[in-house]
From TrEMBL:
Subcellular location(s) of the protein: Cell membrane
GO term, biological process aspect, one: metal ion transport
Protein source organism: Candidatus Eubacterium avistercoris
A GO CC term assigned to this protein in UniProt: plasma membrane
A molecular function (GO) term: monoatomic cation transmembrane transporter activity
InterPro entries membership: Cat_transpt
Keywords associated with the record: Cell membrane, Ion transport, Membrane, Transmembrane, Transmembrane helix, Transport
The keyword Transport appears for this protein: yes
Transmembrane segments: 16-34, 46-65, 77-103, 124-149, 161-180
Organismal lineage: Bacteria, Bacillati, Bacillota, Clostridia, Eubacteriales
Keyword Cytoplasm: no
The protein's name: Trk family potassium uptake protein
Recorded topology in the membrane: Multi-pass membrane protein
Length: 193
């Protein structure tokens, strides 16, 4: 483990960001390969899970299998987490975890945050990241409430709230994933209304 940490400390900030995205996509793909991630309880091929994890993390919204009909609740939550991590940026996400754990944000971490957010100056970078996180929570929360209010009458409370949360996060992060595949001919959130 010390060798890995030593190797990472000799990498540039951009290399660490690229390695981080690669690892998140790989972990996501491996989690989606678990039998618990599919509705049928079978292992999804690595190519499909890698494509889905990449699309989720890079928020492109491209899919090989329908998100609702193929993936179980576990698989959908993995996809949702990848969307959120990709939408915020994993460096920002890691920054939030560090803050929650009460750790100090050092110069190296601030530099990586600066690079990942593509800003010119490190002054106020921590404050900016906190504003982004708070704004994200407020906007996604508001979207989830509005969408849940639309979904609950047709789906019930639990499913309606889950659909509201999923679609709010997917829409805010511009991911393009939806769970409307089971509601034909409403196979897209846009045709729901």
């Amino acid at each position: 483990m010390k060798r890995i940490i030593g190797w990472l400390t000799n990498r540039s900030r951009m290399q660490i960001i690229a390695i981080g995205f690669f690892l998140i996509i790989l972990i996501g793909a491996l989690l989606l390969m678990l039998p618990i991630a599919s509705r049928t309880g079978t292992v999804t091929p690595f190519g499909t899970t890698l494509f889905t994890a990449t699309s989720s993390t890079c928020v492109t919204g491209l899919i090989l299998v329908d998100t609702f009909t193929h993936w179980s609740l576990f698989g959908q939550i993995v996809i949702l987490c990848l969307i959120q991590i990709g939408g915020l940026g994993f460096i920002t996400f890691g920054f939030v975890i560090s803050i929650l754990l009460g750790r100090k944000i050092g110069l190296r971490q601030r530099g990586m945050l600066k690079e990942s957010m593509n800003v010119l100056d490190m002054n106020g970078i921590v404050k900016l990241a906190l504003v982004i996180i708070k704004g994200t929570i407020i906007i996604e929360g508001t979207g989830a409430v509005i969408l849940s209010a639309c979904f609950i009458p047709k789906m019930g409370a639990a499913t309606g709230i889950y659909y509201g949360i999923f679609h709010s996060i997917s829409a805010f992060c511009n991911a393009g994933f939806d769970l409307m595949g089971r509601y034909q001919p409403f196979s897209s959130l846009t045709s729901w209304y």
